[in-house]
Design goal:
Elements (H helix, E strand, L loop, with lengths): L4 H11 L8 E2 L18 H17 L6 H15 L6 E3 L1 H13 L2 E2 L2 E6 L2 E7 L4 H4 L7 E5 L2 E2 L5 H8 L6 E7 L7 E6 L1 E2 L5 E8 L2 E8 L6 H14 L4 E5 L8 H11 L5 E6 L5 E5 L10 E5 L6 H11 L4 E4 L7 E7 L5 E10 L15 E2 L24 H12 L13 H13 L10 H16 L5 H13 L3
Parallel strand pairs: 12-13, 13-16, 16-17, 17-20
Antiparallel strand pairs: 1-4, 2-19, 3-10, 4-5, 5-6, 6-7, 6-8, 8-9, 11-12, 14-15, 14-19, 18-19
Helix pairs in contact: 7-8, 8-9
């Protein structure tokens, strides 16, 4: 069935996933199948040229060739010419395996990824997933899995290497911005949590603020957000913090529904524009603005639908965005199944902010920019080999960053394990009932990593969250 013009845009938007962007959740979810793209009148001469090349290769190439592989190569070549990492072809087998994994197991490492600069790049780990617990971060690049290099693979091939049954290990070689050398993180695959809304209350200077964290925009996220927002409002909160840090996006309809609950009346939530320039505008129908101030927390792992919500609140003029510039994904994809059950995921539209800004590759800029401490980006300490006096490498530098964050001052953070670093290790060991050796062995590393995780999860050390609270207090005149 073919559709034209505005009908195509409307049909595709109904089915689309705002963040799907040919990123794949290494966990579980749904793949949408939307309307086919608009029918185009192709030039017979160009099609004849393709057919001529096909027969030339098939009939005269020095080795036997597989016809299906030639066809798939032609499709992949056309998509690669778009220069769009979010438009991708999946053959029948890849599409089947991914569909089976997505619909039946909900098992994996729990991260959403895309291809960036030829490498599989993490947009964000899912809260409490194996990837999150193993310390993976947004913009980490995975270059090998269990010793197998995945650089240059297309996204779907790489995803199938990273996924696996619950309880199995995925040894991921990681390149991290700001870290000089690649390092290996071993993740134990598991069932992935599907809860997307988490709520807590924060008190400061006699005021009580609600905090709602949205980890992704799934089918039931808007309903859960509404439930938690109503509960907080019944408890008479003085302000609200919406946390979409590390949220890779999700369903457009989910963010639209949430926008209806908090974006001021008749303000635009987002605009979706096709290549002809036709737009669909989503507006808020909220009766009146909320009687309390709102801030929204973002970081470089906030993508797509998260950016839609942040931009809607920012450009409504009433609310502050706090944190770091976001990922910068301003396009919309739809998955189309071909006759042989292979699939093409194609970028079919762009989304614009209420002021008609396109944030693609730029991100939403925070009103109040604040970064987390260095140890938030640290790697869990590894003891292969043990770390000790006079060593000089990236692992020692990472240890020094963590020790400094934990309050044990190594005197330097350049990777050289000097006397002062040894003394810092000894002090840590003494405070935690460990053998005082000054050597970071497996047990010492385990306790250091536990202390690091506790600090990262403690709201008191979350600079961005504390700044959001300050902003709310200022809004209240505190």
């Amino acid at each position: 069935m073919q559709f034209r013009g505005r009908t195509v845009l409307i049909m595709v938007i109904i089915a689309m996933v705002a963040s799907s962007m040919v990123t794949m959740l290494l966990a579980g979810g749904n793949t949408g199948r939307g309307a086919p793209a608009e029918q185009v009148n192709h030039s017979p001469d160009n099609l004849d040229k393709i057919e001529e090349a096909f027969h030339l290769i098939k009939d005269h190439y020095v080795l036997e060739v597989d016809e299906d592989e030639l066809i798939e190569g032609a499709i992949e070549g056309m998509l690669s010419k778009l220069g769009d990492p979010y438009s991708v072809y999946m053959d029948e087998e890849a599409a089947r395996q991914l569909h089976d994994n997505l619909s039946s197991s909900f098992e994996g490492i729990g991260a959403e990824v895309t291809i960036k600069d030829g490498r599989v790049t993490i947009i964000a780990p899912i809260k409490d997933s194996p990837a999150d617990k193993a310390g993976l971060r947004p913009l980490d690049q995975i270059i090998s899995v269990n010793g197998e290099n995945i650089e240059g693979m297309d996204l779907y091939q790489a995803v199938l290497k990273i996924r696996g049954p619950k309880g199995t290990e995925a040894a991921l070689e990681i390149v991290r911005p700001g870290v000089a050398e690649p390092f290996v993180v071993t993740v134990i695959r598991d069932e992935i949590p599907i809860e997307t809304v988490y709520t807590q209350k924060i008190t400061s200077q006699g005021k009580t603020f609600g905090k709602i964290q949205i980890t992704s925009f799934s089918k039931n996220t808007a309903e859960r957000f509404k439930e938690e927002l109503n509960r907080l409002e019944q408890e008479n909160i003085d302000g609200l913090i919406i946390d979409v840090r590390g949220n890779p996006g999700g369903y457009l309809d989910a963010v639209r529904q949430i926008g209806q609950l908090i974006v001021p009346y008749e303000s635009i939530i987002t605009e979706i524009m096709d290549r002809s320039g036709e737009k669909i505008v989503y507006r808020s129908t909220l009766d009146e603005p909320k009687p309390y101030p709102i801030t929204i927390l973002v970081d470089k792992g906030s993508a797509s639908a998260s950016e839609i919500l942040a931009a809607a609140l920012k450009e409504a003029g009433n609310y502050k965005v706090v944190g770091e510039p976001t990922f910068g994904k301003g396009t919309v994809q739809n998955t189309i199944e071909l006759e042989d059950e292979s699939q093409i995921k194609l970028t079919i539209a762009k989304w614009l902010t209420p002021n008609e800004n396109w944030i693609n590759e730029e991100g939403v800029q925070p009103d109040v920019e604040v970064s987390q401490p260095d140890y938030f980006r640290a790697v869990y300490v590894s003891t292969d080999p043990e770390l000790k006096r006079d060593m000089n490498n990236e692992q020692v530098r990472n240890l020094q960053i963590i020790l400094e964050g934990l309050g044990y001052h190594p005197g330097r953070k350049d990777g050289y394990f000097n006397l002062e670093t040894e003394q810092a290790v000894r002090s840590f060991q003494a405070d935690h009932d460990l053998p005082v050796t000054g050597i970071v062995d497996e047990k010492t590393a385990q306790v250091i990593n536990e202390q690091l995780l506790d600090m990262i999860q403690d709201p008191r050390y979350d600079r961005q969250l504390q700044k959001a609270v300050e902003v709310l207090l200022e809004e209240l005149g505190g």
